[in-house]
Amino acid sequence: MPTWRERLASPPAWQLFLGTGAPFGVLFGLFFGLREDTGPAVAVLAGLAAGVLFGATMTFLLLRSRRRDVAAAGTTRVTPIDLALRRGQAPADPADDDAALALIARRRRQLRTSYRYNPILAGALAVLGALQALLNPWWWLAAAFWAAMIPVSVLGIRRAQSRLDTAETTIRTRHP
How far is CA 19 from CA 29, 49, 54, 63, 64, in A? Predict the structure, then answer.
């Protein structure tokens, strides 16, 4: 029986769809509802459309990533292994060590890509927010948020790499 953390880390597709699409749709609808030039009907329709599109896209991408994790690890028991790696620990079952090493290699590739592109993306969004702030000063909040995300993303990636190094060291000392 999976633990609550495993159930939360690998929900079924319909829960992924609702968990990503509903909050995004509500926030998008509120954004359109707060504008002076649109009515409530437009806000509701925009929120529904955005929620469905975002939910479907995120569900597809998350399920594809989960399938690739399973293919890389060579086992369907990816969730408990991944939860251990996120904490910088080796899997509880030493039989999962080979799968964990394969998953560590996949996570390192993902982190290298994130290290390269996340600061560029956050910087571009900060610039777009600053440009939009010329029309509406509230956009300075978005610009400041994305500017702050540049160092946050880099530090987060470094911490994740450190946790992977710790887990890999623990796994390799188990099997000299």
Answer: 16, 15, 11, 14, 17
* Domain end among 53, 73, 93: 73
Find out whether 143 and 126 touch, Cβ atoms under 8 Å: yes
Taking CA atoms, 62 is separated from 21, 50, 77, 102, in Å, by: 13, 18, 17, 19
CA distance 140 to 126: 9
Report the number of secondary-structure helices (H) and strands (E) in the chain. Answer: 6, 0
Q: How do residues 157-166 score in pLDDT, each as one tens digit?
A: 999 999 999 9
Number of compact structural domains in the chain: 2
Reading the block at residue 36, the tokens are 């002076």
Q: What percentage of the chain has pLDDT greater than the value 90?
A: 74
Q: Are 157 and 75 in contact (CB under 8 A)?
A: no
134 and 95 in a common domain: yes
Specify the pTM: 0.82
- Domain boundaries, position 32: 1-73
